[in-house]
## 1
Amino acid sequence: MTEPTPNDRQRELIESTEGVYLVDAGPGTGKTFAIARRYGRIVDRPGVEPADVLLATFTRSAATEMKERIVGRSAYGLRELADAPIRTFHSHCHEILREHGYAAPTHLGLDERITGSTRVVDDELIESERFREFFGGFRDDHPEHAEFYRVLSEPGELLDLIRELASKGIFPTTDGWYRDGEAHLDGDFEAFKERFDAANQPRNDGRKQSPLREDLSGFGRDKAYLPDAPSKSELRGGRGTKRLDDDVAREVFHEDRENLKSFVHDAYVEYLRFALRRNYLTFGFLQLFAFVLLREDPRVREAAQFEYVMVDEFQDTSEIQFKLALLLSGTDNFCAVGDWKQSIYSFQYADVRNILDFEERIERFTADLNDDADRISLDATDLTRIELRENYRSTASIIDLSERAIETPAASGEEVDAPLDEVVELSSNAAFDNTVVEGIRHEDEHEAVLSKIQDIVGDDDYAVEDEDGDPRPPEHGDIAVFTRTRDYGRELLDVADEYDFPMAYDGGIELFRTDPAKLLLAWLRILESDADRGWAVVLERAGYAFDEMAHALETESYPDDAVAFRDALRELESVGAVARRVLDRYGYTGDTADLLLHTIQSMYDSTTATRGELLRFVERGVETGTTVDLSANAGDDAVTVQTIHTAKGLEYPIVVMANMNEGRFPPRAGGSSVIEYRDPVGLRLRKRYSEVRDYPHVYDSWRHDVLRRCLPREYDEERRLLYVAVSRAKNHVVFAAGEEPNAFLDALPVAIEETDASVEPVERGEPADAELPFAVTAPDGPIGHTPHSLMDESVFEAAGERMETGTEPEPETRGMDFGSRVHDFAEAYALDDDVTPSNDHERRIVAFLDDLPGELHVEEPVTLPIDVDGRRVTVSGIADLVHETADRVDIVDYKTDSTRRAQSEYEKQLSVYYHVLDEWFADKAVTASLFYTTNGTRERIEPLEFEELRALVRETEPDLD
């Protein structure tokens, strides 16, 4: 294959190796190609080796790809590059600590050490469980923080706070905070005052009240404040006031937070000590200790610094990663490559200001790191900006649409204040531009999306490029459906499965909510305590109906094979072996099963958790919907479904941006944590425990409610997500919405049409996979019947009547319509509802029920299991009335038939009910009868024997013979 020729801007980046560079690399501009060429050019210089160049990437896979790209563009092969510092920040920090980090904790006053055997916990599930273990002991050891335990709803909130503080370089020491960490926790009043004043500025030249005062019109609504909180009028001022008093800013910002800081400090430093004593570090702690070590130990810093530093995906770096990159720079050769418009990982503590305010931050961070010693010699005064402008992915129409997305309001009335002057205009290199941009809308949006995809496939109007750059009709594999949240993707896959539609999910799955995990949890519960909750899942999986299941649980009469399987599991020592045996029993194989096994075993091996605590771990995973990444494969020609976050870095000929609905994209704001850190207000508490009144109570913080209104929700990242979604497309973009399109779709230059939602079933030579990424092999279960399936319908036809389950309306005394009304009345009257009979049939029922003593059970579901020639069969139905007295039980079924010609068939129905109730009420006499509402007579039925019922089943299931 011919080596591509760099364009002018790419060549500038490749050849500019000395100095400080900020590279704006938009989507599809070939940045990886240019970075790899630049790296090869540097290491091929005399006196420069791969060990002299740090290339930091965002993911391990990106590091691997980068090494593969470099091979062939330098004198080095994969063998020589295997140990080269082309890696993530976490991996490089691990290398530093392995080589130099033994005593790193001492810089925080900790006596513990980092050893060569210290493990890295890179699984958030396992880290969360370890933190839960830590926090349980911390609570016992620190009763002085009881007021905060009472307001914390979940220990994970505190872990999230610690992670965030670590990402910002805020660390504890054993006797306080590292350097200026406490100042960050206190916040910056002057910076807050600027926000306050901006929100408190009256509008319309002072004629209209400020946005802040207007927003506080709901102050105190549905809130419980402490007695010292101001009233709404005291806070907002009297009638005619346009703005809040300036003193409010100071009163809101300044509050006593010493106890809060003490609590966070103690938990933070003790968790560090807990992790070190158990010989593990988290990703956040790797960076924490590496940063402290590089800052405090000049010998280590000098040994760790590089002649050249390049950082890819710079928009995804956190504050501490920016500072680490500076500390690792031994010269002025520093290159940051990224695109602020694609910064979408703030939930992983990425800070878009690193790239937007690059010059200001590099100056401020350098001054901070050099505050008491010369640590960084980097001089950014001669910063060079390079803009990659040629897009090799998308058509000009797609590029234009993506640039419109970055300035589109995300909410009604929002004024967009995005840094639009920073948008670098891209030019397209596409072979042709036949782009279709359209919007569809239907209340059944999932079906509408599938229907639209069926219209697109094979349609030349949506032509895509083939390998030679010529147009060809699109296939399923050319299309990706993007969603803002995972739940829509799961719903879409469920609908696709109904039509055998070729579709696969790629991204985060809620591992513990999958069927394999639920069954594993059930068996773990059984092993722990023979819990009904476990047996219920197992019995349901085996095909037991509700009443049958209830009976088995009550009598503990479980299937012999399940009991034997339980006993065999109890003989196994390893949780991993138990999990493998369970998954094998139900035929679960593939990546999801392997991931589940790995997660369970890792949790069990890496903590001191008992089997019971492991159960709670899985249960919490079910409750919280914890996600893990997994890719699915639905074949070579299948539609891909992804969240936008998962799709970043990928490209598709056609993108369907689905679920463009109000409240879904952007998602409605969720509740904030009880303890949170925000710039510039620092560490804050949303709830407070107090015993100030007659009884203890958790109160809302009035200050927090005002502060959050001064720091309104920003939608810039939601716009960037929309930009990322659109810019994945090469040729075409389709937006899809339901009944309430979002503000994005209303503002974009896209025509929205009501569309068809009819989906044609897909006929394929091989079954299509439309599923979450795990395989399910259903075990053989019982054959299901209803009593009506055992009846001979020809009897009803010969009599000129129909079974009451028929669908055609008949004369008043026959058919489902009238019969259903009579049955509904009988049920309501037996339940003492306020109903009045409207015909003679109902009046006869009233007279019949009024004469019955004892207890009435209405509409009782019943299931009869029958073994027929080695196969298990269940016959399930609903008994209209079960009348129970002290010594007998009567089963009554209402019939509106005008004749008795079908009574022999009704005997089959009542026989099923009889045998179930006869087992339920073994100590009472059980009878079965029909109550004919045409004349109010009651006909006793002699039930069929079990063998007669078996014969009826054989007649309906010839394969059983």
## 2
Amino acid sequence: MTIASDPSYPAHWEADVVLRDGGTARIRPITTEDAGRLVSFYEQVSDESKYYRFFAPYPRLSARDVHRFTHHDYVDRVGLAATVGEEFIGTVRYDRIGPDGRPASAPADEAEVAFLVQDAHQGRGVASALLEHIGAVARERDIRRFAAEVLPANNKMIKVFKDAGYEQKRSFEDGSVHLTLDLEPTAESLAVQRAREQRAEARSVQRLLTPRSVAVIGVSRSGGGVGAAALRNLRDSGFRGHLYAVNEAATTDLLDGVRAYRALGAVDAPVDLAVIAVPAERVPEAVAACGEHGVQGLVVLSAGYGESGAAGLDRQRELVRQVRSYGMRLIGPNAYGVINTAPEVGLNASLTPAPAPARGRIGLFTQSGAIGISLLSALLRRGEGLSSFVSAGNRADVSGNDILQYWYEDEATDVALMYLETLGNPRKFTRLARRTAAVKPVVVARGGRHTPAGHVVPGTRLPDATVSALLRQAGVIRVGTVTELVDVGLLLASQPLPAGPRVAILGNSESLGVLSYDACLAQGLRPGAPQDLTTAATAADFRTALGAALGSAESDAVIVTVIPWVNEQEPQDDLAGALRDAVAAHPGKPVAVVHVELAELVDALSPAGALSPRLRPTEEDEGGYARPDVRIPAYPAAERAVRAVAEAVRYGQWRRANADTGQVPEYEDIDEAGAAARLAALLADFGEGAGEGVLTLTETDAAALLAHYGIRVLPTLPAPTADAAVRAARSLGYPVALKTTAPHLRHRADLGGVRLDLATEADLRRSYEELTDLLGTPGELLPVVQAMVPRGVDTVVRSVIDPAAGAVLSFGLAGVASELLGDTAHRLVPATDRDAAGLIRSIRTAPLLFGWRGSDPVDTPALEELLLRLSRLVDDHPEVVGVTLEPVVVATEGLSVLGASVRVAHPPARTDLGPRTLPSY
């Protein structure tokens, strides 16, 4: 498609989307070069579908029709097509109309909309995706309503409109159903959009993890290399489907005992998943063969892409474009592979040698193959299995967000472990993580605090502690190392969540008990006095003591410490059985074991150890120690066990606190449309698009923009001379404040650049003279006059767009002390009423707001409302990239915003606020 001749072509409307069945399609504007594609598409549509579209038999498009449907001005007349490869599979168009239903131009804000989807692709969600995107286009062109005429028998299309979640009106006129849709997004339409996104992306991952047939492309005849290793691992791990080897030089029917072909096209059966292990320069040929054969997904093990520099990154972008053009999804490139331990699948399409990990309840995602190897080995050593494993390499297409979508509804996964180097789309990640964490733990170890090669997402500007706090707000358990990732994951996968922070400690080592006690205090837990069973304790003693601790109303979790017996009179299997027996008799509280050099105990407590012959009951043994469903994690250090328990405690508290997540309030006086119009005007002459830089608004423009969201900034008047200061004071009314606004003195009362409570002209003139004598000329100081406001606590409210964390709302007290100590709290945008209340209470200096040392409490409800209004502004308008309100004086009644700085920029072409779309490259 050539668009160079059409400068009005809106390239930012192009998007890749995941459809209901997990396949992909590309949505783009229809151009004049699409005449042939349109005719071919129409020829493949059934007569019935044509009748529903045109209300009459319409076997073919006339030349006039083709011209009309391919020539658009992209303002009043727009057409979009959903494509796979070069073929149209669906189209949608709108024509702006006036009140009389005839073609019109702006300011008319209604358009007639019509769809047509190829019969072979109906039921895949094509029309729903097209409606989302044409709706976004219409809103961009100031169209607020869609009108559609649908035949009563066209139930599928009526359902598309009905299920969209928009406010709509329906009437029956002249034998057809007349529908009117209000395009203003609603909570319901957003929920519908995100539910469709979740189902589609989860299904796309499911197709990758549950193939019925797999082909490995690039299997060497010598049995060496990556491709041969992947083939062996698939074969030897017991893959339940059909397996094929592809090598263009194959001379036999078998390679490593697997049916071999010289080309994928020679396989006379469907192939669901292809593992590509050929040099990077040959990957496009392999991808094309997969696309032509109807392969659903790819795992590209080949290296030489984004991790290798700029040329490799260009090659990676082209790979993604090619893969998506065939409607496929991609794991990689430079991937380590995928594993699905479901018995009916048995997939090990990775470089992990057989046997594959055992079946377990942990899902594992990594970006790094090396870290993936480390985590798999650690879990294997601890006897823990997996539900699924994805090591996505450069994650050019399938990312951690997609895997979270899959795990959210995967009944086989109880705990999600993720090693991430970047968050990709941070708004989407935190949204998905919050939703997933509400039903199962999400544990994240984050490496690469600077942008690694191969990843196009910039690093964060926020301190690491801030990123951790923001992730915890979303329910994510943030850990610092891969060792902690395994430690925490093991406990969460095998133990119930604790009801509180009270920890009982018992064991046969007083010293190890004391270490555990200290570690609990360091983690903010509430440990009881350690119970020393002495080194003479037997397995039965451990069982009795543990049972008592679990049954006690004074504990929420138990840590058991164990050191070896001097005479080794107690088999470790017996101790493991005793502990299992106690846990089985008193379920509901987590237990962690701290041991010293007792590897056999670790094995016996693991899932595999539960099936040890020593623990299997005999016919005489009515109870015994056989508890294969009881798993107890064991740790070689007290600090590691306690850290895992503490993370479980904090996560449990988050789950309980977020049973009510709060609401994003609606304020009737917010003028979203007015703010949008003002931003458009401000940015109209600033650059040409996203990435053109940041514009800092004047004080007047900043105050005007904030006013659209009910945030009033107290005006200031310039005072270039003493006489001008007096005139300003008369205009504002005494008493006033005189302040310097020079950058090096702004908000620095400690340097003497502020004079308050000036009640008379004499006071003002004297202060003006003192300032200019002490600090510099008026031209250097840029003095201003402002009316005095009621005394209170000076605070600072900010919001910024961080490249790795997304939109962030921040709060702290004003002043050097707070800045020096970093006493600032943060929440993700959009903030709820619960978030705002928690934000102002989470700084260390919060007592100053609530009547510390007998002072009057300030108006925190007003402060919470200010935070929520600012959050709404930033969330509604991605053009706003930074806001600072400083100082905000919070009095006993009300507050005053004395200064505001606002930075704006052209928004990115696509954000998480728009229609669902895959990341573009």
## 3
Amino acid sequence: MTDNWLLARPEVDLDEVRALARREYGVDGELTELGSQQDRNFLVRGVDGAGMLVKIFHPTVDAFAVDLHIAASDRLRSEGLLTPEVLTTAGGARTTQIVCADGQVARVAGFQIVDGQPLSDITDADGAQAEELGELVAEVADVLAGMDAEDTDRNLQWELGNALAVVEQLIDDLPEDRREQCLTAARRAAAELDAVAADLPRQVIHGDLTADNVMRDRRGRHWVIDLGDVATSWRAAELAMLLADLMGRTDDLAIVARAVAGFDRRARLTDAEIEALWPLVVLRGAVLAVSGWSQLRIDPGNDYARERVEHEWQVFARTARVPSAEVTAQLRLAAGRPHRAGLVYRLVLSQLDAAATVDLGIRSAHLDRGRWTVPGTEQALVRETLASAPVAVLRYGESRLSRVSTDTTRPAATRARCVELWTRPGVEVTAPFGGILTVDTDPDGGAGAVEVRDAGVVLRIEGIVLDPAVADGAVDAGARLGRIAELEPGLGRLRVTRRVRDAAPGDVFADAEGEAEAPGAADPSVIVGTDRVPDPVRATRRARRVREQAVGAAAERFYAEPPQIERGWGALLIDTQGRAYVDLVNNVTAIGHAHPEFADRISRQLHLLNTNSRFLYDAFAEFTARLVAHSPDPSLDTVIPVNSGSEAVDLALTLARVATGRRDVIAVRESYHGWTSAADAVSTSAFDNPHAADSRPDWVHLVDAPNAYRGRHRGPDAGAAYAREVADLARSLADEGRPASAFICEPVLGNAGGVIPPAGYLTAVADAVRAHGGLVIADEVQVGYGRLGSSFWGSTMQGLVPDIVSVAKAAGNAYPLGAVITRREIVDALAREGTFFSSAGGAPASAVAGSAILDIIDAEGLQQNAARVGGIIADGVRALMPRHPLIGAVHGTGLYLGIELVRDRETLEPAREEAARVCDLLLGHGFIVQAASERQNVLKVKPPLVLTEADARRFVAALDAVLGALRD
């Protein structure tokens, strides 16, 4: 018997642990114990948030083992892997010690705290996570293989070279009805392992790299923790620990196989290692099973062990019931090898090696210009491909854009879990490998199917006119099965799927939430000899981490876990998993996503010239003339292109300053105007900047937002009351000898969620400001360009002729373009100070973009569409108000609407949390909606102007359903 395999946690004085943390590491705070089988781990966190992890090793763990732990940590960190830093004591040492209750001395190390949680606590295991963890395990193994340590062999209970001995020693601690099953399986697995053990690479490994010991921090990064089991073992044992964990958590061999695929991609497995993996997994499960019960016998107060004991039995039971040979066949396929060593697959079709792939993915250029929405597109692309290749391949794993539903409330299954081989009817079909054949004949004489089974691998081929002699029974590799049936005139299709062992057939196409690979719909690509498409879920998670790392927490994004959007069409956005959403937030993309004319005109200009606006070219003159023709008033006859809304507002403020010779500005509270220094100075949105109102420069003077719904002034006289506030301020500034250069305001309060200022407000304000020589700036960045439906400009709708207008967003359809529209004499004032140009704003491609947008808005009647479709939404939501008291008001007009949610229609208490929940639930219905206003309780509805009536009605119905779900 080895005593080191029966270790109860050391008893320690908690006050002494706290004193040690304070004395040696300068950290004082309450202790929180974290689970462990044989050591003690305490989180110490002070009131200031600073903290550390105190790890007390079992007294039997000697100095060499602790040093090995620290050396492994240093090694991982030096190679760029994330693992908690080992802290130094007040005396500069890497460890210290503590006296346990029984008088034994235990070694202690302090570790950096990771601000995150173990993967096992925060997420269910899925295929994408398994693959990523497989890669991480391989990377850790690769780094630890280079460790320079003398004797890293340790007689550990968890080192799988000791597994059978551990099981045999501790088997009596298992409940009696489980002992024979566990011991028999462990001995069988050990014998299977012995057959290949001599060929297995050995090295230093982590020894327990599972979802319990990988933490995800707030930035989505993965940290490797708990290096207490570092020792020399088989490299394959490192991966086996993860596979056992995944099998215990999911009971899904397809997910387990993806971890193997991830590992092999990073560090190629040998055939012997693949052969050893499942025996090692079974042994790991057996060790966990007996160890958990043994730990409870010697340490009955160990809640950590008690909570895990049944789960650890399940790990064993799930792994032991599957024959190693059949699992090994699946793992070989996952690693890109034939399911038997030495096997060479035969071609299913004679000319398959000359096949061409049809790209049906979300980014496919073949599906541009809306071709993906046309019925029969897949077959049309197949015919085009077969004009130059004998076989057309449609790949496994592809989210087919051609199958995406444009009705976002009824998402389609788009992710292929099959391989399709298209060719001319009558081509011979042969068996790719030998095994047991099952024939599925169409009783009507049409296309049939066969299944070939070998070592737990089941391959199904559909679309065959079977030869009469083909029958159930043994079949040889390369045997003729029949000919491809004609699916439609001149086209035949084989659909090839794979199942794992006795799994029931799975769906051939999965929806966006479905697993990329399942036991009943596993990847046959290796057998067929075709490429597969990587799981888009992995790419999405990687993109989130890269973005977070690159731009940091200050960069705003929609949703905590946003979909990865890679294509748009009209008012639709499509993610990489094949789900479409109606875009209800994108007032930037006025004419819709991927408008063909817009793209063509810009592309053509980029082939000609793109430079800065100080050169002479037609595009600049054409755009400025087109915009002047749309100006709010003939007096506004001059346009200066810029590159953004922030630059437009900045320039507008500069023009006001130089034209009046003054610097003071009157701005409206709760507004957002941009991020340049000047634009930010007049922005007072507390959501964008919580300290905005208190941090304005002395030349900015604030007035209340003219919100007659929830502001200080309400009712029919609200407009006059709010206007008097501006008039009083303008008069006061003039009396102080610092009259305002300008008043700046959005004609419709976009940041407030589309609130329309009360009648008469803007014209009265203009009169008051101009009475003291000031100018009026209309910030039309969000609401201009026909969005309001009843008028092209918000100022026109309010009966206001501003002095300066700033535009952007819709002006460029997400291209870098904005503009300032004003009078000639105001621009001439700027010329007296100097010249102005904007590198991107007036560039030829930007100018062409600007002209194209104005042309398309006019030609397609998008302003009229905004009025009609916006009315459907506004009327529809108002009709919901009697049964949904959460709806307080519907603000705005046209396709700039705000649905304000309140908990009480009398007190107008903002329903901020409910609004956030509504946005999340609407995403599930296929609508992208976000909250606005200082209170974040107004649902913004400002979609592309091409939004359809059908999508408007679906949105109202979806909102009805979501609000009903919240109420219930």
